[in-house]
C-alpha cells in the first residue's frame, strides 16, 4: 500500500485524491493547501485524512511514500525538488516545471536517487490515445503526413501562464507519445487580447526531419468547446474527437494514391482512394485511474513511467521554443534536444 | 439583356452557365473550351448555344457583351486582358491572376476602359457572409479579437497551384470582405506530401496593426470535410459552419469581461460572461445567382463590384506574401499594399 | 433509345425529365402539364422538346414508348390506366393509386398487356437502402428485432393527401424492400392540427407474424428535418441517417446476448455486447438515375421492376389499413394481402 | 438540519446519498441495503455513517427525519408505507408504486399524517424542463400541437419492469409537468424480444380532449443513445436534446400560418413561417441537488412538492393504461383520473 500525500487542493487536486483513494494499491493519507478553507470540506468527506497548510510538513511526513503535486506551475520545481530530496516518489501535474533548466534538474535528481518521477500528461493514459499510438506503431496508418489538433473553449482564463502552457501542452504530449519521430523546430504565432495578460490564442507548427508536419491551435476565448484532432497517413487517416461520447476515434480507409502516369502524367499522378470508416470500441476507464495505477506500479517495481521526467523535459523544451517563436511572430526556432 | 460568353467548361463552368441562363437580365450565348468533348453534352442540353474551342473566337464575338473566365489559373491574366482589350466586361474565377503584377495590370486596364471587372470570390455573395459583415459593421460583435477558419477535405488535388491558391483564397476573401481592418503581415507554414507537387497543407496567420489576429487552415488530404469559422469579439462571438444545412450561423452572447479588481487584482481581472445563442434565419439563394445578378447590375449601371479587381489584387498580394513565408518556414512577411 | 413522355411538371417532374435526359438509353421527347406557364421555362432549357397541356395528347403520341406520371395522387389511376391501354410502359410517382382497388386494376392491366409498370419508390434505388437489404438478406444482422423510422420536417403541407400518403410511404416502401417478412396488421395514431385539412402527424406500428416490430413516425410540422432509422438485429444494428453527407449508414457490432444462468437466472439471462462501429463506403449515384436505368432495362428486357405494381399495391394496402386504424385511434387493423 | 436515511444503495442510491450530503440543510445519517457488501465502501468513504441491512431498522431509527427509498419498484409501496406510518417524510424513486391502488394508498397516508411525499421524477428538476414549462405557461409557444419524445439506448435491461416503467415514465412525468392539459386516453404498442422478459420496446400515444397529441418512444435495445424531444406550438417550436452538452434547448420561431384564401382556398390556406432559432442559456445545477433542496424546503415549510404523491399516482395511472393497451396491440384505453 503506497501512502500518498497530495499538495494543492484546487481544481485538479480533488480528482487526484479521489483516484488514489480508489486505486487498490494506494491511499491518500495527507493533503496540504495554503488555503485552510479549501481543506474544510475534505474533513467532512474523508474523515480520517490528515491535512496541513504548509507543504514542507507534508513532504517531511515519514508516513508518506509518494508526493503528488497539483499546485500552480511556478511552484512545481521547488516542491518536486524538495520531495525528491526527502526521498519521496513524485507525480507532478503538467508542466513539469517553468523552465527547461528546472526540468532537467528534476530529471537528474530523480535519476540519482532512483525515485519515480511521473509527469501528469493525462491524455497519454486515455484509451483513445493509446489506440492511436498502437495503430501508428504497427504501421496501420502508413507514413504519417500530418497531425492537426484544435483545443479551444471558453474556459478558465489563466493569469500566470499562457494558453500554450495551459492547453497546448496536452496536444504536445500526445504528439510526443504517439509519433515515433520528434520535432526539431517550431514556428508559433499568437496574441493576448487582455492587456497585461498572457497570450490567450496560439498557433504552433512543429517541423520534423521528414516531411511530417504537426499543428496545434489553442484558444481560451471561443464560444464553443472543440477537441478535434486529424491524423493523416499514407494508408489510413484518423479523426479523434474527444467530445464524442461513444465514437471518439474514427479510422478512415481513405487517402491518396500516387502512381506514375505515362500517358497523362499531369492528371494521373495523384488520385484519391475512398473507403470505409471504422470506429473501434474504446475502454471508458478514467485516464487518471489508469495513470494512478501506473504510478503505483512504477513505485513498486522501479519501472520507468510512460510519461517520465524526460517526457516532461521535452514538453518544456518545446514550449520554450514556441514562446520564443510566438514573440517573434512566427520565426523558426529550433527545439532544444 | 447582357449576352455572356463563358470560357472554360470544366468543374465550375457549368455552374456559371446555369446561373447566367437563369438570371433574368442575361443569357449565355457562347461557350468555349479547348476540349471539344466537353462541349458535346452542352449541345444536347442547351440546343441554341454556340460553342468553339478557341477562346479568342469567343472574345472577339461581337454579339457578346461580357466574358466569364473559368479556366486554369495560369490563363486568367492573358484571357482577361484580351477580353478587356476587346471591350468586354469580365468576370474571372478566383484568383484574379497568378501574380500581383498581372493583377494590377488587369485592374488598370479595366479602369482605363471603364469596364466591369469582377472576381468570383463566391462566398462573399452568400447570405451567411453578408450577415457576418453586417454584424461586424454595426458593432454588434464589439472589438474583433480573432478570425479562425478551417477549410479541409479529401477533395480535388490540384497540380498547378497549391492549397493556398485553391482553398485559402476563399477564407482570405471573406476576411477581406467582413473585417474593416486589412492585414499587414503574414506568417505561413505548410508542406507538400507528394514529391514534386504543390503544398497540400498550409497554416496562415495574418497580423493586423491592432491586436486582431486571423488564421486559416487549409488541407487537401483530410478524411472529413470541415468548414468551420470562429470569430471572436468583445461583445459577441460567431460560429459559422458552412456544412450545417439550416443553422450555418450561430451568434453567442458570450465573452470575457475585464474589470479592475482592487482587492484581488490577480483573480478578478478577467471573468467569463455566458449567455444565449441565436441563429438568424438565412436566405438560401445560391451565391452564384446573387453574384450573377450583381455582375449584371454593375454592367448595366457602371457600379463597382463588391469583389472588384482591387479586391482580387489584395488576395494575390496576400497569397504571394504567404507563399514566401511558407517556403521560409513561418518567417514574417509584409503584405504589399 | 426509349422515348419518354412525362406528365406533370411540378415539384418532382423536373427531376424525372433531367434524369431520363441524362440516362444513355432514353430521351424525354414530350412533357405535358395542365398549367401552360409551367412549360415555358422548359422551352428555354430543352429547345427541341415538345410540350402540351392535355395529357391524352401525350399518351396517344405514337412517338412515345413510355409514360412517366408525376401528377397529384388523385389522377394517377386514370392516367396510368390510359397510358397502359395505349400500349405504353408506365413509371408512376408514389403512391401507385388512391385506393387498393385502383392499384389492383393497374397491376392486372400491365400484366395482361405485358407492359412494364414501375412505381417510383425512390429510396429503394439508393445505395444505402440496397446495402441494408443485402446485409439483412445475408444474415449479417441476425434475427431482426425492430425497424424504427423517423421522417419529419417543416416542409410542404399537402392538401389532398395526409402525411402517411406523402411521407410514410417512403419508409413503408423501404421496409417492404429490405425485410423479408411482410407486416400483417397495423395500429396507427395521428391528428390534424389545421381544421379541415388532412392529418399532419402520424405514428404507425406494423405487426408481423414473428416478434419483429416496425414503427414509422411522420410529421409535417417539426422545426427541424430528421431522417433517422434504427434497425435492430440479434447480431448487429444499423443507424441509417439520410441527412449525413458521407456516413449515412453506421453498422454497430452491439446487441444483447441471452444466456442461461443456472446460479443466478435472474441476473445473467440478458447481457449487453459492445463492439466496433463500421460505416461502409456508399456510392453517391442519384437514386433517380439508378431508377431510370432500371426502368429502361425492364422495358428493353421485359424484366420485372424491383418496385413493380405489386409493390405499389402492397403500399396502398398498408396505408389504407393505417388510415382506418388512425381514425379509430389505434385500433388494430389487418393488412389486406 | 434534516436527518436522512437512505434505503437501497444500488445504482441510484449513491447519487441520492451524495446530494443529501452536499445539500446545506440535510445530512445522510444512515444507509441500508440488503446486500452487506454494498455497504462496505460506504464506510471507507463516509466514515461516520451508520449502516444496516434491514430497512425496518432504519425506518424506526428515531434519529431519522426523512426516508429516501431507492430500491426495486416492487418494494416501494411497502417501504414507503412503513416509513410514513413511522412518521417519516418520504422521497421515493420513480415510479411511486407498482399499482395505482398502492399509489393512492400512499397519497392518502401522507395526507392524513401531513407528511411530505415526493416522487423522484428527476427531470422535472432540470433547468431545461423548467424553462419549457415556463415558455408554455406564458403562452410563448401558442397553442400546443404535439409533444414527441424519443428515449432509447443500449442500456440496462431490467428484469422486473418493462421499458415503460423504466424509461417512458421520465417523459410522461415531463409531459405531466409542462403541459397544462392532462391526457385522457392512450394507445400503446410494443414487444419483448427476449422470451419470458418484459417488453423492451414501446410506443405510446397520449390523447387529450383538445387536438393536442403526445407520443413517447422508448427502447432498451438501440445501438445509440437518443434523448430527443420535439414540442410544436402554433407560435414557436422547441427541440430539447438532453445529450447536447451546452445547447439542450433550441427554440424555433417557425410554424404554419393558417389564413383564409378566398381566391385560391386550396393552395393558400396553410403556409409556412420560417424564422430565427434561439438557444437560451441554462443553469447546469445537477437536477438531484435542486430536488434535494426542494424536498428539504417542503419538509421544513410544509409546502407541497412539485412532484408530489398525486403526480406519482398520475404516472402509475398512465402506465397501467398504456400496459393494457400495449398487450391489446394498440387498443384505445382511457386513463383513470
What can you tell me about this protein's structure?
The structure is a homotetramer of 337-residue chains. Chain A is α/β, with parallel strands linked by helices. Chain A folds into two domains: 2-115, Rossmann fold; 124-284 and 317-334, Dihydrodipicolinate Reductase, domain 2, CATH 3.30.360. Chain A is built from ten helices and 17 strands. Chain A has helices at residues 13-22, 36-45, 55-59, 76-85, 100-113, 127-137, 163-178, 265-268, 287-301, 309-327, and strands at 2-7, 26-32, 50-52, 66-69, 89-93, 117-120, 144-152, 185-191, 201-207, 213-219, 226-233, 237-241, 249-252, 255-258, 270-273, 277-279, 333-334. In chain A, the strands form three sheets. Chain A has a nine-stranded mixed sheet. Chain A has a six-stranded parallel sheet with strand order 3-2-1-4-5-6, sandwiched between helices. In chain A, a hairpin with a 3-residue loop joins strand 11 (226-233) and strand 12. In chain A, helix 4 (76-85) packs parallel to helix 5. The longest helix of chain A has 19 residues, at 309-327. Chain A is globular, with a radius of gyration of 22 Å. At the B-C interface, loops of B face loops of C.
Task: Please write out the topology.
4 copies of one chain form a homotetramer.
Chain A: E1 2-7, H1 13-22, E2 26-32, H2 36-45, E3 50-52, H3 55-59, E4 66-69, H4 76-85, E5 89-93, H5 100-113, E6 117-120, H6 127-137, E7 144-152, H7 163-178, E8 185-191, E9 201-207, E10 213-219, E11 226-233, E12 237-241, E13 249-252, E14 255-258, H8 265-268, E15 270-273, E16 277-279, H9 287-301, H10 309-327, E17 333-334
Parallel strand pairs in A: 1-2, 1-4, 2-3, 4-5, 5-6, 7-10
Antiparallel strand pairs in A: 7-11, 8-9, 8-17, 9-10, 11-12, 12-13, 13-16, 14-15
Amino acid at each position: 500500500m503506497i501512502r500518498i500525500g497530495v499538495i494543492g487542493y484546487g481544481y485538479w487536486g480533488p480528482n487526484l485524491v479521489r483516484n488514489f483513494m480508489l486505486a487498490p494499491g494506494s491511499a491518500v493519507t495527507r493533503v496540504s493547501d495554503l488555503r485552510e478553507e479549501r481543506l474544510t470540506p475534505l474533513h467532512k468527506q474523508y474523515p480520517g485524512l490528515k491535512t496541513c497548510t504548509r507543504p514542507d510538513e507534508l513532504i517531511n511526513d515519514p508516513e508518506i511514500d509518494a508526493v503528488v503535486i497539483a499546485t500552480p506551475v511556478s511552484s512545481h520545481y521547488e516542491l518536486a525538488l524538495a520531495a525528491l530530496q526527502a526521498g519521496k516518489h513524485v507525480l507532478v501535474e503538467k508542466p513539469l516545471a517553468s523552465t527547461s533548466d528546472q526540468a532537467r534538474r528534476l530529471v537528474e535528481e530523480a535519476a540519482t536517487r532512483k525515485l519515480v518521477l511521473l509527469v501528469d500528461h493525462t491524455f497519454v493514459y486515455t484509451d483513445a490515445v493509446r489506440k492511436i499510438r498502437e495503430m501508428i506503431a504497427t504501421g496501420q496508418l502508413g507514413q504519417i503526413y500530418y497531425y492537426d489538433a484544435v483545443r479551444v473553449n471558453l474556459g478558465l482564463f489563466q493569469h500566470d501562464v499562457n494558453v500554450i502552457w495551459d492547453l497546448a501542452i496536452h496536444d504536445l504530449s500526445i504528439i510526443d507519445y504517439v509519433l515515433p519521430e520528434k520535432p526539431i523546430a517550431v514556428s508559433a504565432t499568437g496574441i493576448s487580447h487582455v492587456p497585461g495578460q498572457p497570450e490567450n490564442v496560439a498557433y504552433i507548427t512543429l517541423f520534423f526531419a521528414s516531411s511530417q508536419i504537426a499543428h496545434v491551435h489553442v484558444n481560451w476565448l471561443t464560444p464553443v468547446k472543440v477537441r478535434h484532432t486529424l491524423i493523416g497517413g499514407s494508408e489510413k487517416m484518423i479523426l479523434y474527437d474527444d467530445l464524442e461520447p461513444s465514437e471518439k476515434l474514427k479510422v478512415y480507409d481513405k487517402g491518396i494514391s500516387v502512381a506514375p502516369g505515362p500517358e497523362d502524367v499531369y492528371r494521373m499522378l495523384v488520385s484519391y482512394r475512398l473507403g470505409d470508416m471504422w470506429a473501434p470500441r474504446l475502454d471508458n476507464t478514467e485516464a487518471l485511474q489508469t495513470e494512478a495505477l501506473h504510478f503505483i506500479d512504477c513505485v513498486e517495481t522501479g519501472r520507468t513511467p510512460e510519461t517520465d521526467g524526460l517526457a516532461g523535459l521535452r514538453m518544456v523544451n518545446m514550449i520554450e521554443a514556441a514562446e520564443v517563436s510566438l514573440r517573434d511572430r512566427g520565426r523558426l526556432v529550433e527545439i532544444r534536444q
